[in-house]
């Protein structure tokens, strides 16, 4: 991640959208050359993404199929997702034999990230990918970039069939409010993340911001996704409720030490705060009972969540060591558009699949 920030004044607010982005280019330290973990985690979801795209297409049979990848970053991982979706729909079009085959729809692929993202690196390979899909699957693919924060509206109302987001939703829209006391002193002095020495007010502030952001994300997509459309969301989560779990804080500790070694004055580092929050798997599918958007129920197959009392549910599977939950959601009704309507109002059906942690061989 790169920001190009200088030591800010303590009273200066930072425009996150203008400065936050993955390291651009194709150099040794670029995101494109250092995102193999993200690529592997996305590849494990390949079948889930293809199945979701196929289900939407078979149910709706649109002449044009619109896909949105939110948080595409600057590497080529997003293009691999595009290929999986197009090939999955292409297989559905071919059917079980020549007599049941039909030409594939045209594909509109919307790649989204913040305006400061290096879209050039992504689109440098776009003609190659589009040409390969045309030759192999007979599909016409139109790719375009949509700069902006996904914590808000990005696309036309009822225009997107499939929304995907991988390794992005744990990034917050802004530094949470409430990280200073009444005398304007930092509550988390010496740390840029939630640690065992943090005041209880610190994780509470991050949780409030996450709940606000995630609900806004869902409401925004609810206005944009067509009835019967789907979402596949994957994000980093904790295995336990303990936010000081060493498996999650070790990297932040190392990053803090590196930053401290790079600066000559402690005051320069103090205003820096991570915009990342790693929620527990349970918090992902359950919010406070006072929140009208999500109500929790008990399910025989795991945790089950009903959204706004609608027709759909969210289910979390049980068992195994957990590290990355995957939310697959389907829009099941239509009660009007706008940011206040859509996905949450008519109901959401979702499967939350948790990927088992792969133990490294020593």
What's the quick description here?
The chain is of the alpha/beta class. 31% of the residues lie in helices and 20% in strands. It folds into 2 domains: 1-54 and 63-148, Vaccinia Virus protein VP39 (Rossmann fold), CATH 3.40.50.150; 154-357, 3-Layer(aba) Sandwich (Rossmann fold), CATH 3.40.50.
**How many strand elements?**
10
What about the largest sheet?
10 strands, mixed
Low-confidence stretches: 1-12, 267-272, 285-324, 335-362
Structural class: alpha/beta
For the biggest β-sheet, the strand order reads 3-2-1-4-5-9-10-8-7-6
Using only C-alpha atoms, the radius of gyration works out to 21 Å
Q: Any idea how many domains?
A: 2
CATH topology of the largest domain: Rossmann fold
What is the annotated CATH architecture of the largest domain?
3-Layer(aba) Sandwich
Instruction: Report the end-to-end length measured between terminal Cα atoms.
Output: 29 Å
Helix content: 25-40%
Family: Belongs to the methyltransferase superfamily. Type-7 methyltransferase family. SABATH subfamily.
Region (Disordered): 329-362
GO molecular function: methyltransferase activity
Biased composition (Basic and acidic residues): 350-362
């Amino acid at each position: 991640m790169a920001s190009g920030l200088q030591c800010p004044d303590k009273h200066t607010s930072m425009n996150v959208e203008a400065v936050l982005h993955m390291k651009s280019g194709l150099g040794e330290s670029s995101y494109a050359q250092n995102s193999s973990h993200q690529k592997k985690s996305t590849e494990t979801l390949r079948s889930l993404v293809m199945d979701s795209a196929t289900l939407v297409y078979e149910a709706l049979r649109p002449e044009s199929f619109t896909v949105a990848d939110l948080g595409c970053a600057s590497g080529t991982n997003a293009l691999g997702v595009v290929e999986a979706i197009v090939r999955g729909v292409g297989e559905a079009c071919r059917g079980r034999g020549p007599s049941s085959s039909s030409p594939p729809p045209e594909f509109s692929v919307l790649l989204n990230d913040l305006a400061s993202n290096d879209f050039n690196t992504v689109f440098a390979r776009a003609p190659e990918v589009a040409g390969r899909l045309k030759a192999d699957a007979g599909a016409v693919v139109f790719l375009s970039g949509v700069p902006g924060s996904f914590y808000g509206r990005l696309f036309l109302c009822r225009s997107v069939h499939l929304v995907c987001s991988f390794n992005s939703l744990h990034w917050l829209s802004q530094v949470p409010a409430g990280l200073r006391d009444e005398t304007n002193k930092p509550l988390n002095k010496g740390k840029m993340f939630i640690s065992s020495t943090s005041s209880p007010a610190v994780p509470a502030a991050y949780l409030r911001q996450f709940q606000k952001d995630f609900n806004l994300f869902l409401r925004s997509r609810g206005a944009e996704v067509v009835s019967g459309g789907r979402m596949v969301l994957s994000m980093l989560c904790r295995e336990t409720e303990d936010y000081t779990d060493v498996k999650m804080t070790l990297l932040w500790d190392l990053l803090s030490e590196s930053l401290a070694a790079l600066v000559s004055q402690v005051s320069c580092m103090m205003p820096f705060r991570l915009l990342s929050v790693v929620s527990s798997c349970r918090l992902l599918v359950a919010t406070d009972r006072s929140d009208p958007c999500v109500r929790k129920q008990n399910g025989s197959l795991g945790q089950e969540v009903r959204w706004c009392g609608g027709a759909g549910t969210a289910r979390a599977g049980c068992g195994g060591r957990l590290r990355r939950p995957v939310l697959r959601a389907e829009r099941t009704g239509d009660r009007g558009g706008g940011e206040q309507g859509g996905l949450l109002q008519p109901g959401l059906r979702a499967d939350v699949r948790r990927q088992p942690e792969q133990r490294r061989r020593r």
